[in-house]
TrEMBL record:
Highest taxon listed in the record's lineage: Bacteria
InterPro entries in the cross-refs: Peptidase_S78_dom, Prohead_protease
Protein name: Prohead serine protease domain-containing protein
Organism: Citreimonas salinaria
GO biological process: proteolysis
Length: 180
């Protein structure tokens, strides 16, 4: 099976501390994305357990590029809400410094997971329910799959409809460029 990517948002609770520490949700359980996928509670459990047993870590990448690691996820875990991540951008890596600046400016506001589907099924609404995933990486990305969800910079209100409209315009442009 091929590696898949699933985009999510940072969420309003994501914080950037001291310019280089970030935390938030990379995936939310039960939320349908634009691709018609829903991640089920517990989908990451086996993968996280296996990674821990093998003393391996989920990678932090820039835009899913394996040649551009930009930091370290110090904590990756499931809770009742979704896949929580907490880590630090590396200030000794040029792209890490750039990512921190872009996040603080509000230019980058998405998280995306890179994974392989182990088990999935279609539900009665025709949505693909992902019940077991092999998690490989969590990336910082420009265009999250949930365009209305983003990180707010100081003074911005993420619930303001103009931001949702702008996010939708950008997502539509991205899809047009990609030929989707």
């Amino acid at each position: 099976m091929d590696l898949e990517h699933k985009f999510c948002r940072f969420d309003t609770e994501v914080t950037v501390v001291e310019g280089f520490r970030i935390e938030g949700y990379a995936s939310l359980f039960g939320a349908c994305d634009q691709g018609g996928d829903v991640v089920a509670r517990g989908a990451y459990a086996a993968s996280l357990k296996r990674l821990s047993a093998e003393n391996r870590a989920v990678k932090m990448l820039w835009q899913h590029d394996p040649a551009q690691p930009i930091g370290i996820w110090d904590e990756v875990r499931e809770d009742e809400r979704g896949l929580y991540v907490k880590g630090r951008l590396l200030d000794t890596v040029e792209r890490g410094r750039e990512a921190a600046a872009l996040i603080e400016a509000g230019a980058i506001d998405g998280l995306s997971i890179g994974y392989r589907t182990v088990r999935a099924r279609k539900n009665e609404k025709g949505l693909r329910v992902l019940s077991e995933l092999e998690l490989w990486e969590v990336s910082l990305v420009t265009f999250p799959m949930l365009p209305s969800a983003r990180v707010a910079s100081k003074g911005e209100d993420p619930s303001d409809p103009s931001w949702r409209e702008l996010a939708q315009v950008l997502e539509d442009a991205r899809r047009n460029l990609a030929g989707v």
